[in-house]
Amino acid sequence: QSCFQVSPYSSSMLGGRALRILGLTLPPDGRLLCRFKGEIEQQGIIDEEGHPYCISPLLYETGWISFDVSTDGTNFNRSGKYLSVHPSKADPSFEVTLVNSTLWQNYGTPNMAGQLRMTWNISLIESETVNVELWGYREVSRSTAGSSSLKAEISYLYSLGRNISNTGDFSFFPQPREKFSMWEVGNIRITASSTSEGERNVQSLWSGGHVLAWHLEQSFRDNSSAWAHRKCLQWDDQERKLPDFLDELIDCPCSLAQARADTGRFHTDYSCNMETGSVCTYHPGSVHCVRAIQASSSHGSGQQCCYDNTGALVLTGDSVGGSTPDRAHDRGSPPYREPPRVPGFSHWLYDVASFCYCCLWSDLCHVYLNHRPSSGCRRYQPPKAGVVFGNLHFITFDSLSYTFSGRGEYYLLLSTDKNLSVQARTEQLKLKNGTLVKAAQLSSVAMKENSSDVIEVRTAGDHLQALRNQKILPFTEQRWMDLQGVFVFAPSPQNVTVIFSSGAAVELRLHEGAMTATVLLPVEFSNHSLGLLGRMNSDPSDDLTTRSGEVIPANATQEEIFTFGAGWNISNMSSLFTYDSHYLLDSYFFPLSHDPAFVPAFSLPLKPDDPLAADMLSMCLGEGAQFCIHDTLISRSLAVGNATLRAHQHHQALMEALKPVVSCGWLPTPRNGKKNGTHYLEGKTLSFTCNEGYILYRSTERTCLQEGTWTGEQPYCITVITVISVLLHRNSQ
């Protein structure tokens, strides 16, 4: 009775969404008070059918937000949570659409004038008339106890229209607003006309955040280039006074393949995404960009990496479309609320508005890129991957392969130094016809790092089910969740990725009923991992290390390997799993965590007259064929063997993508000359030429060597007069 769920379960952090409290009915004339985070208190709503609603408040943070309700005005004895999300990740049907976003963003610059138009879903505001308001964001100085800091502020500025008909369409001619010109980033809000101007935490619809070019002072419209030129130089001065954040950022992956495979540290930048065909407006010449998942620890900054159609990293030293880091990470970073860690808004203020000043509205893009240069990839080291798949095959971080088909709960990975635990639950394989097979398969993986939430991902029929601290995580509204010390990404019901603060990631996939778990570890975990996926140190000979430290040789018998695997069972005290059914209690919680009575079939000989033989041998080809044959024979199912083969092929493709590559670093173009080529990896050669009237001095070509250095010397383009002067000077000596 004291706990409730809400529908919808997510809302933009800007608030205004009606959250229905499920399982509670109140008299229509009853009382409902809602209190968010123990501090924001407001009246709830009860509809004619007695359904109670709380309106999500305006916040400066993302994540699960707790709130309590009272039905008597005194006792807040019911509690629930909802997910506050980045404004760009909220339900798009609840967004005010800014028609022709290019006009909105560049209004007042040459050839950008006329009416601005917005649209919305009229059914979402239950009122015949509405108010259209502008809200702004800024960060202001705050002095306390002799120290100075910044405070985030989202405020109502003025109304664009009041008591207008709720037709779902509104246009207006924007006027310069001298008084509000200091507010350069903001959002449109639409509410019912019954609300007061600027009233907070009422049911409303919000537009996306944008630079408010359309309301800037008259001087901007008179000469937008000169205005932006001045603003860019002011930003340049301010930027020089701020702490340097570039050295704190992780280097970019050297190739597009690495960037897409390193899912523990990088995630698709949706504004430049080859998978959806989005146009890379701010990065011309690029086809795909990724952003670092974690913000930098000291400054909350973010990395961005963009790639061209050859898969090469695009650098700002060669193109304005190159990768640009961010002083403020777009996703924000804990503890949020404080600049520059406010999700979305800090990024718009520090990185997007300044890009408009310098690159879109004036010709000072070099000033912007001087403060936001591409990082390159010379220090980048790809993660190592270990995998468990099929019935039950392991490939360790150091690429040792073995089979352990025990039934129970085990450590896939245990890192006491890094305080990371990844546990696997296995069950006896049951075919679609109900037949039990003498083999095991993965059914659940639970994991935790330091003080993070405990995340479990388990099979549930034809999809995967994720749990957070023993409660089911719904992914019907959001594919990405920011949780305590961990992110969870579920692009499909059969694919879940769990990402920890250290950069470690666990990818779970379901295919043909078979679950595969891939663990990605950054190089910092070298010699800090044990368990069924081995010790990560580039030495496969010690991967079968027992809990007591004994090393089992790689050529051990299958029975010895089975004993090794059984020794990595977990205890009830260390278990991270959820036991929310009688089956799980009786099968895993009460018995030993390794079932000694279950003995798998270690191998089955292939008989020439086996009716499966011909189809199996034609299917099980190439690398991984031995795993495919093993699982087909044990399960007597081609589908099971094919799922195993597919899982192995996926792992091999991942390993190929994560192969280390050598970068020699960026080379500049000689002044008064040209550089042919922008690829800086091992084996690549760059050539240099000079403009007419100049002579090339030093190397005409430079090649990137395996050691990460360039052949030759940096070339220069010099005039004939300079050459003569140099020769005369040498002769005189």
TrEMBL record:
Alphabetical keyword list: Disulfide bond, Membrane, Sushi, Transmembrane, Transmembrane helix
Chain ranges of the VWFD domain: 384-576
Localization, UniProt: Membrane
UniProt superkingdom: Eukaryota
Domain annotation AMOP: ranges: 224-372
Disulphide bridges: 690-717
Domain Sushi: 662-719
A single cellular component GO annotation: membrane
InterPro entries: AMOP_dom, C8-3_MUC4, Epithelial_Barrier/Signaling, Sushi/SCR/CCP_sf, Sushi_SCR_CCP_dom, VWF_type-D
SMART domains according to UniProt: AMOP, CCP, VWD
The protein's name in its UniProt record: Sushi domain containing 2
Species: Poecilia reticulata (Guppy)
